[in-house]
Amino acid sequence: MAIERTFSIIKPDAVAKNVIGEIYSRFEKSGLRIVAAKMVHLTQAQAEGFYAVHKERPFFKDLVSFMISGPVMMQVLEGENAIALNREIMGATNPKDAALGTIRADFASSIDENAVHGSDGQDTAKEEIAFFFSDNELCARTR
Ligand code: RTP
Ligand code: MG
């Protein structure tokens, strides 16, 4: 299976709960490696740009307000099948539907405040990584 990179955000609710380390541990235990990371308090323009695909959706305004309500931790994760693997350990969008032991089942409180973001495909992973990280911020982890 191919080595992939995916883009991940620990959202403001999970940063406020002080569980960045717990979530990083889930990534590492699943075999994903962190190859770039930064903590950022997103601007409204950044949040709107990042979630532009949802701009016509009824929840867009609330989503943007939530994403700028506090700092987020963003990272690029690398590993075999990283995109689908990260979605699997995140769990369903609505924590009520998230499988036991997933990040959202354990740390999210609602569909609006659902702890993490993860890219949903190869194209979006590429776009989202490039939206927040330059090439020289991505570190090779094989040695
Ligand atoms: P994400 O993009 O954040 O990883 O989440 P996702 O793929 O699981 O869900 P997506 O459909 O892309 O929606 C993006 C975020 O919008 C919020 N949302 N609220 N109230 C609602 O019906 C609703 N639907 C989606 C969630 O916070 C979701 O993560
Ligand atoms: Mg999504």
UniProtKB/TrEMBL annotation:
Sorted keywords for this record are: ATP-binding, Cytoplasm, Kinase, Magnesium, Metal-binding, Nucleotide metabolism, Nucleotide-binding, Phosphoprotein, Transferase
| Cofactor(s) annotated in UniProt | Mg(2+)
Question: Which EC number applies?
Answer: 2.7.4.6
The record's annotation in InterPro entries points to:
NDK-like_dom, NDK-like_dom_sf, Nucleoside_diP_kinase
**Family annotation (PROSITE patterns):** NDPK_LIKE
Task: Provide the protein's localization.
Answer: Cytoplasm
GO BP terms: namely:
CTP biosynthetic process; GTP biosynthetic process; UTP biosynthetic process
Highest rank taxon of the organism: Bacteria
Cite the Pfam families for this sequence: NDK (PF00334)
Q: Which reaction does it catalyse?
A: a ribonucleoside 5'-diphosphate + ATP = a ribonucleoside 5'-triphosphate + ADP; a 2'-deoxyribonucleoside 5'-diphosphate + ATP = a 2'-deoxyribonucleoside 5'-triphosphate + ADP
Report the enzyme's class at the first EC level.
transferase
Active site as annotated: H117
Its GO CC terms are: cytoplasm
User: What is the role of this chain?
Assistant: Major role in the synthesis of nucleoside triphosphates other than ATP. The ATP gamma phosphate is transferred to the NDP beta phosphate via a ping-pong mechanism, using a phosphorylated active-site intermediate.
HAMAP family with a match to the protein in the record: NDP_kinase
Complex formation:
Homotetramer.
What name does the UniProt record give this protein? Nucleoside diphosphate kinase
Species: Methylomicrobium album BG8
Q: Show the taxonomic lineage.
A: Bacteria, Pseudomonadati, Pseudomonadota, Gammaproteobacteria, Methylococcales
